Amino acid sequence: MSTTIRIRITCTSCDRARGEDLEGLLRAAGHLRRQAKPDVDLMWELLTSVTPTLACDECGATVTVEQDVWEDEGEGWLEAKRCQRCREIIPVERVELFPDEVLCAVCRGAVDAGDQDDVSYCSRCGSPTELRPRMTSGITRYVEFCTACGR
């Protein structure tokens, strides 16, 4: 049984929020380079040292960190499904009606209305990604590139 620790980082100024994996955040900050499977208590302690250095991606203001822990029991265990855009829990009724849905009702409505999320995040470390041109055989393609982990 592995424990996945998610944290929600919220800006105190503009209320922009993002969800991150605690272990990924600490690895990106350079605190867990040598440990393959870090202790949970150690990660909580390291979070207190990393929190003052975190800033909002949008406005640069200070952020607050909320802790959210759940355990991954493996296949067959019904766990709360989270929206890929805002990281809020999708209600069970919505998941039963639309099992393949990955967005909550609010975000689905915004996407259907044409509102697009300006920032995409790396699936590995949670950092913002950017589009970069890649030229192969004289053809230019734009690919998403993570600014933190290079993926």
Keywords:
alpha+beta, 4 helices, 3-stranded antiparallel β-sheet, two-stranded antiparallel sheet, 151 residues, 3 domains, 21% helix, globular
Write the layout of secondary structure elements.
Layout lengths: L1 E10 L5 E5 H7 L11 H11 L12 E10 L19 H6 L7 H8 L16 E8 L2 E8 L5
Antiparallel strand pairs: 1-2, 1-3, 4-5
* Main pleated-sheet profile: 3 strands, antiparallel
Assembly state (oligomeric): single chain
Number of domains: 3
% residues in beta strands: 25-35%
Average predicted confidence as pLDDT: 77
Question: Radius of gyration from the CA trace?
Answer: 17 Å
Q: How many strands in all?
A: 5
Shape annotation: globular
Gap between N and C termini:
28 Å
Query: How large is the count of helical segments?
Result: 4
How does this structure look, described?
With 151 residues, the protein is α+β, with helices and mostly antiparallel strands. It folds into 3 domains: 1-76, no CATH class; 80-116, no CATH class; 120-151, no CATH class. Helix content is 21%, strand content 27%. A hairpin with a 2-residue loop joins strand 4 and strand 5 (139-146). The protein is globular and about 40 Å long. It starts with a strand and ends in a 5-residue tail after the last strand.
Q: How is this structure best summarized?
A:
The protein has 151 residues and is α+β, with helices and mostly antiparallel strands. Helix content is 21%, strand content 27%.
